[in-house]
Structure formats: structure tokens, C-alpha cells
Amino acid sequence: MNAKVKGYILGAVAAATYGMNPLFTLPLYKEGMDPDSVLFFRYLFAIPILGIMLKARGRNFRLKRKEIFSLVILGWLVAISSLTLFQSYNFMEAGIASTILFVYPILVALIMAVAFKEKITLQTVFCILLALSGIGLLYKGGEGATLNLIGVGLVMASALSYAVYIVGVNRPILKDVATLKVTFYVLLFGLSLFLIRVDFGQSLHVVDKWYLWGNLIALAVFPTAISFLCTTQAIQYIGSTPTAILGALEPVTAVFFGVTIFGESLTPRLCCGITLIILAVTFIIAGSNITPHLVRFRKLFPKLPLKHSKKQEDA
Length: 315
What we know:
This protein has 13 helices and no strands. By secondary structure, it is mostly helical. It has one domain. Helix 1 packs across helix 11 and helix 11 packs antiparallel against helix 13 (268-287). It is globular and about 45 Å long. Mean pLDDT is 82; it is low at 296-315.
């Protein structure tokens, strides 16, 4: 098997494992867990995994004082993105939520245009209109039913907070910090938000069934550690942009599990909406000048590609 084939397989695995979020989260909700408790344990279990990975690669945990504040802010941005996404699962089907979330690269393009005066091309405008059309189709579902407005708002808040994070993590202050170390501290500082929200453990919902603990561990292993590792390797084999485009499998995987396991509905109208959003994001990643801002690393919660030019040292 040549390197390119390996890269595409690894990229597909990375995207598919991230799409497993609903697979492990919804059973926990069914047993009465709230998003804060689920995410507290997910972050808590993922941190030592990434810490072991960091030490295994011969890295240290040291930070410069000027880097700490930036990582605290970034950690909270990712935590807010995770929280609003997981809260949206209580208001709408997880597969649809994961698809709407996939518009965050388009939000990155808008942020770069507004805040950093980057030119918006006709292609970007077209992709925005395409994505909005897709969201419109998702919002107006089958048989005249509409999606819950609170759920849509939560997903858009998740996409926006992650888009701000993507822009922020590419600022010069963190350019010399290895990607794995950034990920470790983003999780660590993000955990502090959930620690506060569960009243330092007073309102933490602890599961009492062994298989539910398996779900919590699986959330830390599959959508986090395995997805991250496969992404890193995929970028080394095929580069950042193809790996980012393969991210289109993330909402597809989420929809697949939602329909086959949780009985979520999938009408032709919803299929069209999902397709339009995936096409819009694929076009903007493949041909837009925002790609450099989407390659620090592939979605953590969710994740985007590592910057290929950072060489393998930052991986």
C-alpha cells in the first residue's frame, strides 16, 4: 500500500471516528446525564491520553508566561463550542446538528474578511449562499416540520466559537508551540469551564452502569485520541487540504449512526440540505485562501488539519 492510499484511509478514519460523537453521547443522555457531566468526563479522560502521547514523543509540558493566557482563552472557546454542540443534541437530531456545525470553515472566511480585511472572493460568496440554502432545507424538514430554533442557535454558536478558535490558534504568539502541546492545554484549560459548571463536583452526574463508563471512555478515545492521531498521520502522507476535505465524512458518519441506530428521520429534503452544506465547505477548503487558517490541526471538538508546513516536529 503506497503512502497516498494510506493517507486517504487514515483521513477517512479520522473523520469517521469524530462522527461517532452522537453514537457514544446519546445513550448517556438517555440515562439522565447532562452535557456538562458528559463533557467533564470526556475532557478528563482525554487529557492523560494526550499527556502520554506528549511524553512519548519526547515533548515537555513547559509554557512561556505569554502563552498561558492565550491557551486559557482558546481552551474556553473550544469548551464553549463543545458545550453548545452537545446541548443542541437535546433539541434536534444529532446528525443534523453535526451537519450544520460543518459550516465553521465558512465562518472562518467571514471572520478573516471582517477582522483582517481579507478579500472575499466570488467563490466564497457562492459557498456561503450554498451553505445557507442547505441550512434552509434542513431547517424546514419533512412534512412541514421545522427544526427547533434553540437547537439551531446552539449549533451556530458552536460553529462560531470554534471558528474564532481556529483564527486565534494561528496567531503568531503560539507559532512555536507544538500542536500536540496546544491540544493538551486546550483540553486542560477547557476542563476548568466544566468543573465550574458542575459546581466543582457537587452537581456532577456519575453513571452507575459499567457500559456507560465505556461510552465515556470511548468519547475520549475515538473522537479525540484516535481521530487526532489518524489526522496527524494523514496530513504527513497527503497534506492538509485533502485531509480537510475528507472531514466531510464527519457529518455523514453522524447522520448514518443517527438514522441506523437512533431512528432519526432522513427525508430527500434533508439529504439535499446535507449535500449542499458538504459541497459548500468542500469548495471553500479546496480553493479558498482561508486554507492556511484551517490547517493548525483538524477539528479537536471538532478538529481541522495540522499545518503541514510545520513539519513533523509539530505533529
